[in-house]
Amino acid sequence: MQVVMLLYPRMTQLDLTGPYEVLDRFEELNLHLVWKTLDPVPDVYGLRILPTDTLAGSPQADILFVPGGPGQISLMEDKDVLSFLRRQASGARYVTSVCTGSLVLAAAGLLTGYRATCHWLSLGQLAYFGAVPVSERVVTSGIDFALTLAACLFGEGRAKRAQLAMEYDPKPAFVGGTPASAKPELVASLREANAAFQKEREAVARRAAAALQIA
Amino acid sequence: MQVVMLLYPRMTQLDLTGPYEVLDRFEELNLHLVWKTLDPVPDVYGLRILPTDTLAGSPQADILFVPGGPGQISLMEDKDVLSFLRRQASGARYVTSVCTGSLVLAAAGLLTGYRATCHWLSLGQLAYFGAVPVSERVVTSGIDFALTLAACLFGEGRAKRAQLAMEYDPKPAFVGGTPASAKPELVASLREANAAFQKEREAVARRAAAALQIA
């Protein structure tokens, strides 16, 4: 099975590297990191990862995957990327994303009528595309997502084996990784700090939704 | 503060990319990915990450970090890497690792007399170097480690803010990420599957310990 994972500038690399770590432990899966060129792709903080295939040279995905991150906003109006995703999705068995990657799938028209999720700051924007925003467990944690997917594909036994091989036993030092569990002041402060960027993201989402002729 | 993170062929990339994601959110920290050359470094499954600095060109670390992975065994007898780590550690405030990265620090003589931890399959090997093996929480989870370190450096408030910004709220689909919580049959089966490689790792650890004149 071919797993096609989109790389892009200013992505959140952990959204991609987490699932990569899990999925590449399964021999049945061939992972491809795809972008427009084969040049190194910098994440939002500058970590540079090399693609394995271009969009044009990518195999047909059985599993299509889009990570999140601030760079997602340019993809939402990028005709080449959107048509690549539509083409790939039409032949894929699973169309997946982590964090704000779902907004890119939504902009490609792939989530219309589906339940979908997103980073808490941007969750509401999914509705512009006719998707049904839900806040569920396998949301922004790429590792949890990938183990769940692996269990769907290969059964719980093998997913558990990968989890033990990775010694994946997360125990965050602090409570408060979600807006529901964090202190309201902290949630408000992060909203405030991200307000300008979220305004831009919102505007792009509305334009992309209009382009889809849904909004 | 300079954070010097060692890249190396056949590392477990998530050991590095997890902490990178957390630490690069703190403006006070400058992250450096260092290896012998500036060529792309492939992890154990082939994901290629670009270094930012060579060993020779690396700044002095305030925080020194070594990820784990199968490639660690060649580092344990690599004089250039071991002397780099010793030189860096002598000026660093924190000397850190995830997973089997600790065995490399041990081979450099940096853990002798200290409590240290490691991936469950290799934990016992730390004792060859005069380290005290402990199985503790911030062990193989690079993300949890980095949030704990960030709290030490910048206070709990800012660490919690980073955690919420990342929406880091892991909820593994399955129990059993440690040998204590997994079914004994699964633990035995993984030990069996890794026996040949663990034998090699063990032999290298014994040689490296002998070279340190401790064993």
Short description:
Two copies of one chain form a homodimer. Chain A is of the alpha/beta class.
What's the arrangement of secondary structure elements?
2 copies of one chain form a homodimer.
Chain A: E1 2-6, H1 13-23, E2 30-35, E3 41-42, E4 48-49, E5 53-54, E6 63-66, H2 72-75, H3 79-91, E7 94-97, H4 101-107, E8 115-116, E9 132-133, H5 142-154, H6 156-165, H7 184-193, H8 195-211
Parallel strand pairs in A: 1-2, 1-6, 2-5, 6-7, 8-9
Antiparallel strand pairs in A: 3-4
Helix pairs in contact in A: 1-5, 5-6
Distance between the termini of chain A: 36 Å
What's the SSE pattern of chain A?
EHEEEEEHHEHEEHHHH
Average pLDDT confidence of chain A is: 92
Rg of chain A, Cα atoms, Å: 17 Å
Helical fraction of chain A: 25-40%
Residue runs with pLDDT of under 50 for 5 or more positions of chain A: none
Strand content of chain A: 5-15%
Number of helices of chain A: 8
In terms of quaternary structure, the protein is: homodimer
- What's the main sheet of chain A like? 5 strands, parallel
Shape of chain A: globular
- Secondary-structure-based class of chain A equals alpha/beta
The total strand number of chain A stands at: 9
The most extensive interface, with participating residues per chain, is: A-B, 59 and 59 residues
Walk across the major sheet of chain A and give the strand order: 5-2-1-6-7
